[in-house]
Amino acid sequence: MKQYSDWIQAAGAIGILIGIALVILELRQNEELTRMQIATDIRANRDADRNVTRGETYSTTLARLQLAPESLTDAEVVEFSAHAGSLVNELFLRRQLNEVGVFIGGWRGFLTRETCELLDNPLGERWLAQFESVGDEEIAEELRQRTEACGPTFLQLVRDTSDGEAMADAVRAREIAFAQSMADRDLQAFAEFIAPEAIFFNGNDALRGRDAVVEAWAPFFEATEAPFSWRPDVVEVLDSGRLAISSGPVNRADGEAVGRFNSVWRRGADGEWYVIFDKGS
Predict the structure, then answer these.
(1) Which of 37, 179, 206, 222 has a Cα-to-Cα distance from 70 of 20 to 30 A?
(2) If we measure between CA atoms, which residue out of 225, 218, 217, 223 comes closest to residue 261?
(3) Can you give the pTM of this predicted structure?
(4) Distance in angstroms (rounded) separating the CA atoms of residues 95 and 105
């Protein structure tokens, strides 16, 4: 009897082990099915989005988006929105693949070039700002970090280096208009020429940010007559067309020269130039 009892116990133990093995196998099968489903979803998503947003007109829209985003038609804006949504969807699915072990590489480095092509421009900035308020927080943060690190695209470089003299003229005109805001006693117009993160030097002290600069310069706009004026006599632009420097004399109200200004300008995503550094001597 004892031998039969031992066999029964052994059989029971084997049954338990078999049951555990079957549960583990089922879990692995379910996990594999999940991975396959996500992989299928991401392929279907990519194919569908490319059919919708990468048709015959997409390359033209992309070029216009990079070179003249303000000139896009309503249909092209709709196409842009569809492709921006496609970018988010693909990043979301890549992140899911990463989480379940199907996609081993980090999802954060995926489609970086496409992100810059789409979002590093005024239209893309507006879209991203809206997405940051209602979309996936982690993906929104990743897209923001990418756009802040974007360099000029190939098409922008072609445009930016096509006529260096014209670009220098544009910076010179921008500097003259900047100085005119002082002559016009228009502090608001003055602020519009300054980049949000600009640094202006007040002697050896750095004023960091547009708000600090405007606050420090506000007293210069209180009198009826401007206390000083300036005008560029030297302007140089980098071959990349992204940065420029302007320099020239600073004169008191009576016309006497009292120093020189040196300003560094950066071309924004909207194609306009903004002061990022300013220091007198």
Answers:
(1) 179
(2) 217
(3) 0.47
(4) 10
The pair of three-digit structure tokens given for residue 213, joined into one six-digit string: 């600069």
**Spatial CB neighbours of 120, under 8 Å, sequence gap ≥ 6:** 147, 150, 153, 269
Whole-number Cα distances in Å, 194 to 100, 240, 248, 268: 47, 21, 18, 11
Domain that holds residue 162: 157-280
**Confidence category of residue 53, pLDDT binned at 50, 70, 90:** very low
Cα–Cα distance for residue pair 176/248, rounded to 1 Å: 11
In a shared domain, residues 165 and 130: no
Q: How many domains does the chain have?
A: 2
Q: Encode burial over 73-100: b for 16+ CB neighbours within 10 A, e otherwise.
A: eeebeebbeebbbbbebbbbbbbbbbee
Given this model, what pLDDT does residue 78 score? Answer: 81
Q: How many CB atoms lie within 10 A of CB 258?
A: 10
Cβ–Cβ < 8 Å for 255, 274: no
